[in-house]
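Human:
If only I could read backbone structure tokens as easily as an amino acid sequence. I am handing you a single protein, as its sequence and its fold in token form. I hope you can help me see how the letters and the tokens relate. Thank you; the sequence and its tokens follow:
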Amino acid sequence: MRVPSRSPGRQPGPAVASTAPAARRLPAGGRRTTAAPDLAAYRSAVAELLVEVGALADAPSTIARQVLLDQRLREPAVAAVLDATPQGLVGARETLLLEMARYQPNARSSAHDLTALVRIYLLSRIDVLWWRDSPTFLTDEQVRTSTELVDLEWLRRRGLLDFRYQEQPATVLGRGLRAVRRRLRPDATPRTAGLLFRRARREMIAFLNDLGREFAAAGPPGTPPLWVTSLARSAEHQYRLRRLGYAAMVPSGHCLGWAADVELAWYERFGARTTLAGLLLARQEAGEINVIDEGQAWHVCLAPVARRRFRRAYEAEMGV
């Protein structure tokens, strides 16, 4: 059984636009560092910073928070990561301060408080660091037509997916039926809007299939399959989410096609949440993914070092 053929490569025309900067300033001293940043040290430094941000979360502490960030973001473990992103250290600092200044608590947002906002932003910079030269899907149309992405529904109908998802209803009738089903069976599925785009990179499909099989083997009896709540999306949609109050960071691994959101909270009722969290953290420890705890769902981004392995896995599974 075959799936759509492998992409022939980058196509002519303005299908996607690169997020890579035309030129980057060299660090002080004129030397460009080539060593990969220590991500374990970065995550540890971010965790320490979050404790301090939490102690300064009240409104009168705005200036103190800014001073704190000025100091902590320049620490070597943090600066090495931020300076390697397209925005650089200064741009990342200014963006974070702006995000904090604009922050308003919102029931829709995964950033339930200011500390969560800082955590999500700083950890999401790992995605951007990894895929800084990857093209961004700027518009919804680019997501729908890109040859780099595969239609999940085509695979689902052929039993080639080891994870579940649901699409966002496209009509008023569809939204009404979804609401009725939730009232009748409120815990039958995760409480999520669903996928606007049911498309993903081949490597991400293989990764999620692999994770889904591992979760099925490790979870308690009766645990439902892995549930994915978000995959590739456009920068256009990312800004749409921001206007609705979601903590949708820009740039984002989702808009590069290398990130997904995996449901966690729903599995608590099956006694499987801790199991799934452990599997994700173990894969992060192995350098395969970046993980961000966003509450109900966890954000995961595939590491470049795992790209080739999962591309081969996809081709083997699908008979390409």
About this structure: The first strand starts at residue 17 and ends at 18. The two ends are 9 Å apart (CA to CA).
